[in-house]
Design goal:
By secondary structure, this protein is α/β, with parallel strands linked by helices. The protein is built from eight helices and nine strands.
Length: about 210
């Protein structure tokens, strides 16, 4: 397994299958995630997004939440086959709206999707590859990009499930602004686990100008 593809190979294989097995779409989590997205989407002015792409959807927990309050056409990119099968088999999305792909190579046209987002995905992309993921998400997004990730003001590598190169914290919001002059900050916030049930994550919403 080459260093370049080690992370992708891990998520496509047994490591990713185990992550999917640990994940849940139970009613309590669905309610927590729904409230979080409603808070974020409350900052969008004008017409709501007509299309939304989640990059790294796993078994579709966020997509399930979005379906409870938006009529947008929803898409998912997910490299793990087991997770994609769950999304389709459980009727979360039809097969033609679920893609076997990664953040660094999105199978969509320029500006095809109104809002493109990640939730706990950029944290798993190593430093040398993360700019490619940003560029692809920016390319595909027509109006908004959203990231929901762990935050650190400096790049930090965190041991994760016995691995030393599969979890990274950085200033993901700052990187959006540093890389793209056509993005403007809309809002950001923090979901504290103690009150939201989510995993102490920071979110950043940007609009293309």
């Amino acid at each position: 397994m080459s260093d370049k593809n080690k992370q992708i190979d891990a998520w496509r294989g047994d490591f990713g299958d185990s992550y999917t097995d640990r994940n849940t779409a139970d009613p309590e989590r669905l309610a927590n995630v729904t409230r979080a997205f409603q808070e974020i989407f409350g900052h969008i002015e004008g017409a709501p997004p007509a299309s939304i792409l989640e990059v790294g959807a796993n078994l579709g927990g966020n997509i399930r939440a979005l379906k409870t309050f938006t009529d947008a056409k929803l898409y998912a990119v997910e490299p793990n086959g087991k997770a994609r099968s769950i999304i389709v088999d459980e009727g979360v999305l039809p097969p033609d709206q679920v893609a076997d792909a990664t953040a660094g190579d999105l199978p969509f046209d320029d500006g095809q999707i109104d809002l493109v987002f990640t939730s706990g995905v950029l944290i798993h992309i190593p430093h040398e590859d993360v700019e490619r993921a940003y560029n692809e998400m920016h390319r595909v997004a027509r109006r908004y990009v959203l990231s929901i990730e762990y935050f650190s003001p400096t790049l930090v590598t965190i041991p994760y499930r016995g691995e030393t190169d599969l979890l990274f914290k950085r200033d993901f919001g700052g990187q959006w602004l540093d890389m793209f002059d056509d993005l403007e900050h809309v809002a950001n916030g923090f979901f504290w686990k103690r009150t939201t049930g989510l995993d102490d994550v920071t979110w950043w919403l940007f609009r293309k100008t």
